[in-house]
Amino acid sequence: MKLFTIVCGHLRCRKRIFLPYANKEDFVDIPIPAFLINHPKGNVLVDTGPNPDVYNDPFSVWGNLAKAFVPILKKNDDILSQLERIEIRPDDIKYVINTHLHFDHAGGNRLFKKSMFLVSARELEWARRPENEGQGYFQEDWNHPLNYKELEGQYDIFNDDRITIIPMPGHTPGHQVVIVRLKREGTIILSGDSVPFKENYEKKIISINNTDDVQVARSLNKLTKILKEKNATLIHGHDPKQWQTIKIIPECYS
Prior knowledge:
By secondary structure, the protein is an alpha/beta fold.
């Protein structure tokens, strides 16, 4: 089994969104992550990056949100171009896991028409609420005739303990993390936005862009327990310093 990490461009935003102690004038360019897992029984994609239309005209897609999160995107940063680097096409993806349905994690869902989507039932319910449209969620990202499997709790995709989805709410009501167990590299946890920066985990700092800070704290304790039990490596969703040290597609972990 192999794990490929993908960067679908970057977003420029105020650092204090993730680390509230940061100076108001401090900006940071955060990676937009996705992951591909080559499992013997099928390819699994974790998150799908931004809506492909953003690469041409971000304001027409995101409106004022494109001012708070300024997209820094190159022509071939989109998820399909990144997968083509290892000769993977949309129809080659058996499962897509959405850690959550925010604009930078589920914008490419519509591209994977033959895949089964593994998303929290609570997340779908939350994203469907009209008052959340434009508040990190856009129905144009995910509301298509796709095969959504709504999860309630932990889910082992292939029933072999190699790719497991764990509920970790707080950032959003239905946020999920993914535990990947590799033969050579050991256990790697894809944390989504549960701990976007290393400081969020190590210093127990809670970001300001969460729906429920109490749930974030509970999930942080749960994540700490899993990390100790599994002796795992934690990949943070948006930490630019850590991502400078990570192998990027076409390189991989195995």
